[in-house]
Automatic annotation (TrEMBL):
Catalytic activity: 1D-myo-inositol 2-acetamido-2-deoxy-alpha-D-glucopyranoside + H2O = 1D-myo-inositol 2-amino-2-deoxy-alpha-D-glucopyranoside + acetate
TM helices/strands, residue ranges: none
Protein name: 1D-myo-inositol 2-acetamido-2-deoxy-alpha-D-glucopyranoside deacetylase
Keywords on record: Hydrolase, Metal-binding, Zinc
The species this protein was found in: Actinacidiphila bryophytorum
Source domain of life: Bacteria
Cofactor: Zn(2+)
Free-text remark on how the cofactor is bound: Binds 1 zinc ion per subunit.
Keyword Zinc: yes
Function statement: Catalyzes the deacetylation of 1D-myo-inositol 2-acetamido-2-deoxy-alpha-D-glucopyranoside (GlcNAc-Ins) in the mycothiol biosynthesis pathway.
Keyword Hydrolase: yes
Length: 315
């Protein structure tokens, strides 16, 4: 690919995220999305389902749930749009169009078998929809879950499969995404977060406190490829979490999902690279885009990124 044509227009950096339900993007990557969007990158979110089977936290909205009015999916389209407005992300799409794939519910429930649910989707067909987006956006970085979906939810596992298959299909069609990343949380960060939560020593509005086992995608620190410092965007992430009010309750630096267990909030978001050329430099990188490839973005005289050796390693 030495003959790469000049992109027709900015933004030069393009990030694609593939998520299962509205709210996953904000919880996992909200600070990352806000940061890159603010820096002028194109941030594209593909959400695979409407999250119809989610439990509803606010009592006054309980009627939306799938066992009552079954209008939660429609409602969550609005929550997602509001969250994306908070993050400054303008390109958000549903895989195959809104409502194409239904939320499959937690692993082992009857909803896993419902025709039209994402768990029952043909991976190649679903990945074909994603490949269309990839060919449209031509991202350099793709973010999704690990092969266990972070915590075993069928739609998250399927999102992982579809993302990696979509990556392959798009490569066959002429756009190979430079790097693919899985969402992860380093063990030390989880331990620190829960220590912070314990030290807060105050009464939560939540029923209980989560444990590190409740955090998806926890891995050993040395397996983490990139840590994106989104602390400057923590407030935006919090605001976006609040926009997903049916799913997330926020209290200061902590939040709870429908299990009502308090969890620490993370503004530094971590990724493990699973496809593509290694990022330049040694140790953990701080940017999902390779330093050096985007020299035009750097201020005059600035070293290309925080990884030592990045300049000379383009080989
Ligand atoms: Zn989810």
């Amino acid at each position: 690919m030495t003959d790469r044509p000049t992109p027709p227009a900015p933004p030069e950096r393009r990030l694609l995220l593939v998520h299962a339900h509205p709210d996953d993007e904000t919880i996992n990557n909200g600070a990352t999305m806000a940061k890159y969007a603010a820096e002028g990158a194109l941030v594209t979110l593909v959400t695979c389902t409407l999250g119809e089977e989610g439990e509803v936290i606010p009592p006054e909205l309980a009627h939306l749930a799938s066992d009552r009015d079954d209008t939660l999916g429609e409602y969550r389209i609005g929550e997602l749009a509001a969250a994306m407005a908070e993050l400054g992300v303008t390109d958000h799409r549903f895989l195959g169009g809104a409502g194409r794939y239904r939320d499959s519910g937690m692993m082992g429930v009857a909803e896993n078998e419902v025709p039209g649910c994402f768990w029952q989707a043909d991976v190649d067909e679903a990945a074909g929809h994603l490949a269309e987006v990839i060919m449209d956006v031509r991202p350099q970085a793709l973010v999704t879950y690990d092969d266990n979906g972070g915590y075993g939810h069928p739609d998250h596992i399927q999102a992982h499969r579809v993302a990696l298959r979509g990556y392959e299909l798009a490569a066959d069609q002429g756009h190979r995404i430079d790097r693919v990343f899985e969402i992860c949380t380093p063990r030390s960060v989880v331990e620190e977060g829960f220590a912070r939560l314990a030290a807060a020593g105050r009464d939560f509005p939540f029923e209980g406190v989560a444990t590190p086992d409740d955090v998806p995608g926890v891995i050993d620190d040395d397996l983490v490829s990139v840590a994106v410092d989104g602390s400057a965007y923590a407030e935006r992430k919090t605001a976006a979490m609040r926009a997903h009010a049916t799913q997330i309750a926020v209290d200061g630096p902590f939040f709870a999902l429908s299990n009502d267990l308090g969890q620490p909030f993370f503004a530094t978001e971590c990724y493990r690279q699973v496809r593509g050329a290694a990022l330049p430099g040694e140790g953990r990188a701080t940017d999902l885009f390779a330093s050096g490839l985007f020299a035009a973005d750097l201020p005059d005289g600035a070293a290309p990124g925080e990884h030592p050796g990045a300049e000379g390693s383009a080989s």
